[in-house]
Design a protein that fits this description.
Elements lengths: L4 H15 L8 H8 L3 H13 L3 E4 L5 E4 L8 H8 L8 H4 L14 H18 L10 H10 L15
Antiparallel strand pairs: 1-2
Helix pairs in contact: 1-2, 1-3, 1-4, 2-3
Length: 162
């Protein structure tokens, strides 16, 4: 289970725009330089984000891209869905059936239940988190997630005092 480069870099582009002026127009070369990404890669990402309705393009000398809506209304779930899709979806088993037309475990599958629950947990966290939320520092984000009951505190140590 891993985040794709497209998802990571797309989020970074949107965070740059959020951090440096939501209503300001940002050019592809500007975002590219700031995020250490190639101009063609940023152009590709901005096209996907524009077609998905998360950014709008502005023509002209002061042109570039702006967020289509306030950052506190853009969930991370929405961004990741647009850039890469979900971790586990309803057709996962169809695509991973091996040599057969359907999975050998289609009738009773503990893995399907596990992945489904992982996806529900991811959905809960990602739909409760917005671009604006990600402007926090790492320490502030840890507190934020704990306060919103999104992230469970670490379990106490299993060590026993004798």
């Amino acid at each position: 289970m891993k985040l794709s480069a497209q998802e990571e870099y797309g989020l970074r582009c949107l965070l740059y725009m959020t951090r440096h002026g939501e209503e300001k127009s940002h050019s592809i070369p500007e975002i590219s330089r700031a995020e250490g990404l190639s101009v063609p890669n940023v152009a590709k990402l901005m096209r996907i984000l524009r077609l998905g309705g998360l950014v709008a393009s502005v023509r002209g000398q002061a042109g570039g891209y702006t967020l289509s809506k306030p950052s506190d209304q853009v969930t991370i779930a929405e961004v990741l869905s647009l850039l890469g899709g979900s971790f586990f979806g309803p057709h996962f088993c169809d695509r991973h059936a091996g040599l057969e037309r359907s999975c050998a475990h289609a009738a009773d599958c503990s893995l399907r239940l596990l992945w489904s629950n992982v996806q529900k947990t991811l959905d809960t966290i990602l739909t409760r988190t917005t671009l604006r939320d990600l402007l926090r520092t790492e320490a502030e984000m840890s507190v934020f997630l704990r306060e919103r009951s999104v992230m469970q505190p670490e379990a106490p140590s299993a060590e026993r005092v004798v």
